[in-house]
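Attaching the record inline, Q. Sequence:
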Amino acid sequence: MCVSALGLNMVVNVERIIQYIKHGDQDNVQIQLEVYNSEFSQCFFFNVEEREMKKQLELEEFRRNKFRDHSPDVDSDLSDTEDDPDLIQRRRLAAALMWFIRTKLQPQVLRACLRTLRILSRDRLALAPLETDDALMTFAHLGGLTSLPMTSDASEGQEYGVDLQEAWFHEGGTTSAGSNDAQNRCNVSNPNSENASSGAARGESDMDTQSNGSLSSTDSACSAPACVHDGACRTTDPWDGGHDCALMHFEVHGGKCGNSVLERGKRDVRGERDEEEEGSDDVEVWRKEAMKALCNVIYNSQRAQERASALRLLSGLSERLKKELDSPLPPAGQFYELRLLFLLTALRPELRLQLQQERGVSLLTSALEQCLSVKWMDVNEVQSDPTAPPVRKEVSEKAVEILKTLFNVTHDAHRNEPDEEECALYRRLAAVLRHCMLLSCEGEELDVELKGHAVNLLSALPLQCLDVLLSGRLSTSSVEWEGLNMDCVRSLLQFLERRLDAGHKLKEKLTPVLNLLTESSKVHRGTRHYLKQQILPPLRDLSLRPEQGTSVRSRLVRLMTHVDTDIKHCAAELLFVLCKENVRRFVKYTGYGNAAGLLAARGLLSGCGPYHQSQYSSDSDSDSDTEEYRHAKGRINPVTGRVEEEQPDPMEGMTEEEKEAEARKLIWMFNRLSRDKIIQPMGVTAEGRLAPLYVEQRVRPLQEQIREEDSEEDLDE
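Structure, as predicted:
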């Protein structure tokens, strides 16, 4: 079927569906919507090829004329498609369905309607009927947020040419369901209707609302911190863990007949798995479909985000979460409530503050404990069982959503001085996060994602509250170091090694764990000693450069010359702290060439400076040199950090006059490059910082003579 044929067929079907809705023909509405849902179940953008083709033509026109007729408009896509018949039909269908789902429908009909609305909610150009206060509250009530007041709008759909109320009265105030207008309004505050079928509904995720980690935009850019850290390298993930934090990474690939299939960085099959379930509880299906659509609308519409804040959806979510925590039954369909809570806190800064003020950290910590079935051994110690089976996929997915939301609420906690109550709360949270670091999940991808968000959250907590990471009781399977339990630190180190092997998004993946290990090493002596032994063991093989090899030290040293300044700084800072900020020891393990960047930034190039070793212990740190190092110490090149092969003396066999001539030639070449501003000679000041080096001030007589000779050569040329 060609693109035009598909478009025509879709218009006809949509018009037919709207007519069935006007007449209240539920059976035919269900049949038509099921066909529509099957056809567009994986469709994300409509008419995407036409839009891309138009943009390409505009780009080519701009390249030819070097002139743009008008300044780019952020809403240009919206204005360009106002006359698109397919778009108009989708808006009319959305408006009609929003009116229809507020009437008393059969369970299967309501299910089909909500699924269609979920598909339509993916297209941001067709969201106008879905972003009204009435539509948002309808979705919220059907989604189970019954504590919110319900609104009513009798004019729903008229703006889009669907005069449903007029059709209603022409039918004599009745539908095929046989109910009047007042009775036909669905009591969405109580979705547990007598028509609901029994069954167990599992948590599910729609393709269009599943993310891949943490928000990748910074707080200043999009008001979504989800993995934003302070300092030069405190960075992320809300959708990929990180540090510049990503709301959603969607990649659109061409599908059949000109439509495109929804793809993302991390494909999820929760929606596909759920839609194939049979015998599911209709009430839970309604809730999940409504919450999926609401998540899509909130994510795709800035107006919906603003209205959601005004309508206090956050308060409704909090109340719902509290009821589920108090209920003896396991929560069903909680994933989408957590997803919506994350979206609201990621996109609206005032809601982050509101949730924090309403004791959201305590609430979410309790939800995380319930999700992971945490058992406490002591005040801040969670019982861990190394032989326990991996965490199920649906459990880890909910835990990830809670962790992302917690980060949004606590991302700046480390900047403030917590009081006694906050310290107790953060220590309890840190103990649960320690448990997360020791868990294993079904599937390596989910395991890495869960630990990544736990690391992001740990890096946001006050450092004085992280002592619980080392306070676990020792067992036969524990890693002991100086009488402390190093299981969590070992897990963090293993996580770092896995992230070092990542080939892309190094900044988002590495900077949180590097910062966390660095800051922990500064304040916890046991952590620094253990990491020093694991990352910087005594040197034995001195034939390789520090950056050569596959060890953790080699890979970190390679990052010290990375093009990204934040990555380079974080890697160097961790190694510098493990060396107790001692310049000699730092150069010994990394080489002067690799260490020069950090030393220059700190004013330590001269080898002396404002050390901060007083904050470290006065012990030797087990830094005794090996026999191999002591034997080769005199032959180590301090710049490269390894033993170099003996090189012949270039001055051997030259007379004193020839040596002087070579020296003059070298100075002449430096002078010419400097004079032409090709290079700028630099030197180290008494303060240990780089400063421009003016050769003329030091060898002025020789320099003047070289200039004269240089001028004569230019004339000869």
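Strands lie at 250-254, 260-264, 376-378, 381-382, 480-481, 484-485, 636-637, 642-643, 682-684, 690-692. DSSP finds 31 helices and ten strands in the chain.

More tomorrow.
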